[in-house]
Structure formats: structure tokens, C-alpha cells
Amino acid sequence: MDLKINFEWNLPITLKHRKKWIVPSCEALDVHSQGDTEKQAMENLSEAISIFTESCILRGTMPGVLQQLEWII
User: Fold this and answer.
1) Which of 55, 49, 36, 58 is closest to 10 using CA atoms?
2) Which H helix or E strand runs over 24?
3) Distance CA 22, CA 41 (A)
4) 13 near 2, Cβ under 8 Å?
5) Buried b vs exposed e over 30-55: b needs ≥16 C-beta within 10 Å?
6) pLDDT number for residue 4
7) In the predicted structure, residue 7 carries a pLDDT above the cut 80
8) Is the full-model pTM beyond 0.70?
9) Helices (H), 32-71
10) How far apart (Å, rounded) are the C-alpha atoms in residues 68 and 15?
11) What CA–CA distance (Å, rounded) separates 34 from 21?
12) pLDDT attached to residue 8
């Protein structure tokens, strides 16, 4: 049996323009992505954050990762 839980984070994002790419970064999680347009770049970053989060939860490393990023748990 699987349990699906959705949650929402409010994370600060920065956007940088690098030649033909738009590079969004979530420094709070040290997750970055890129895209041709701002919309695509943000969608890619959202997917990267989801994969990062799911991976940490599945491996049981989320508390350690957040502590390493200096989050208060």
C-alpha cells in the first residue's frame, strides 16, 4: 500500500540569464536547473526540487540533508 502526501514549500528562487539559458536556483536546497524560457526553467526547477525531496525521503536522509544546509529542524 502506498500513501501519497502533497505539501507546499515557499522557497526563495533566483533567476540568472546565462547566454541562451535561464538558470533558476533554490539556494535554500542547493538545487538548480535551466530552461530556454522563464516558464520552462521554473517548471524544470520545480521538477528538480520534487525529485530531490522524494529522493531524500526515500533514502531517509532528509533530516541530515536539511541540517547540512543549516535548516533548523
Assistant:
1) 49
2) strand 21-26
3) 6
4) no
5) ebbbbbeeeeebbebbeebbeebbee
6) 79
7) no
8) yes
9) 38-59, 62-68
10) 24
11) 6
12) 83
Q: What's the rounded Cα separation, in Å, for the pair 41 and 44?
A: 5
Which single residue is written with the C-alpha cell 538545487?
31
Q: Residue 46 has which C-alpha cell?
A: 520545480
- Model pLDDT, residue 18: 92
Q: By percentage, how much of the chain surpasses pLDDT 70?
A: 100
As given in the structure block, the three cell numbers for residue 47 are: 521538477
Q: Residue 62, exposed/middle/buried by CB under 10 A (0-12, 13-18, 19+)?
A: middle
d(CA 47, CA 71) in angstroms, rounded, equals 21
Give Cα 66 to chain centroid, integer Å: 12
Residues 6+ apart with CB under 8 A from 73: 63, 66, 67
Give the chain's end-to-end CA distance (angstroms, integer). 28
Amino acid present at 56: C
